[in-house]
Amino acid sequence: MSALKLTQEQHPFYFSVKALVKMLRLGLTVTSMTFFIISQAPEPYIVITGFEVTVVFFFIILYMLRLDRVINFIFWPLLDIINSLVTAIFMIIISVLALTSESTFTVLGGVFGLLAAVCCIADAALIYRKLLFNPSGPFQKSPDKI
After folding, report:
1. Alpha-carbon radius of gyration of the chain
2. Using an 8 Å Cβ cutoff, are 10 and 74 in contact?
3. Rounded Cα distance, 65 and 84, in Å
4. Is the model's pTM score more than 0.90?
5. pLDDT in tens for each of the 146 residues of the chain?
6. What CA dihedral angle connects 83, 135, 62 and 43, to 10 degrees?
7. Cα dihedral sign, 113-24-67-53
8. What is the 3 state secondary structure string of 30-48?
9. DSSP per position, the chain
10. Angle of helix 17-38 versus helix 43-64 axis, rounded to 10
11. What's the CA gap between 144 and 146, in Å, rounded?
């Protein structure tokens, strides 16, 4: 009996550490947005966290359906790193501003926002590390596999 082993190309996205970090990031951002909505925080807090939820959800769907392999004229890892770093900056700014509020739910939204910012930085670090160890890119085939 031979057991089938999945190679890196066949390994589904949702079994990876990157997926775990993205799902955690999505959950923390949704929680932060929910607290901002409940506390009736200023609209920019709600709009920015809502936008981040939409973008993270887009990347999760993109990787789950493997559309990053179909749409190969865009270098998705670099776009994902830039998105993660910009999101971290926005979430840190919003969270620090929310922590100065006197509303309990706004402060909780700020705390979850800071945790989401940490997940954004971890997500960017994971993708950057993968790019360093595989500089040719995950989308190029080696001559022996053609």
Report:
1. 18
2. no
3. 20
4. no
5. 445 454 455 567 777 888 889 999 999 999 999 999 999 999 999 999 999 999 999 999 988 888 888 888 888 888 989 999 999 999 999 999 999 988 899 999 999 999 999 999 999 998 888 887 766 555 555 555 55
6. 0
7. negative
8. HHHHHHHHHCCCCHHHHHH
9. -------TTTS-GGGSHHHHHHHHHHHHHHHHHHHHHHTT--HHHHHHHHHHHHHHHHHHHHHHTTHHHHSTTS-HHHHHHHHHHHHHHHHHHHHHHHHTSS-HHHHHHHHHHHHHHHHHHHHHHHHHHHHHH-TT-TTPPPGGG-
10. 160
11. 6
Residue entry with tokens 């790019």: 131
CA dihedral of residues 44, 50, 51, 54 (deg, nearest 10): 180
Q: Which residues contact 41 (CB under 8 A, 6 or more apart)?
A: 35, 98, 101, 103, 105, 106, 109
Alpha-carbon distance 124 to 138, whole Å? 17
Which amino acid would we find at residue 122? A
